[in-house]
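Our platform keeps sequence and structure together, in a single record for each protein. Because each token names a local backbone shape, the row as a whole describes the fold. One such record is reproduced below, unchanged from the form in which we store it:
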Amino acid sequence: QVQLVESGGGLVQPGGSLRLSCAASGYPFSSYVMAWFRQAPGKEREFVAQISWGAARTSYGDSVKDRFTISRDNGKDTLYLRMNVLKPEDTAVYYCARKNSRAVLESTEEYEYDYWGQGTQVTVSS
């Protein structure tokens, strides 16, 4: 059974940093493209970052491109998101997601992802 469990969220001051983790199980982690999305209350889910199965190709949403870094450790079946220079508008629940094996790599539409974690809350506030 596929399971994705996010951790590492919390309360942080503007300008601070956090690293989120997503522990994956129940499937061959290294064979799947993985991604991070986020959703603020009352807002639509937003693409944050994506990484290919071998970590050679990454992509980012425009709002986080210069501040966030996605990575993966296939030996630990874990996905990471390093977030630097956090802003209040980064406040959201952050979700990791597994991409459908037949999806186009360049697509970051929500429907291309077939499993989702429960999310971890990130709050950026003074």
DSSP finds no helices and eleven strands in the chain. Residues 7 and 102 are 28 Å apart (CA to CA). The two ends are 40 Å apart (CA to CA).
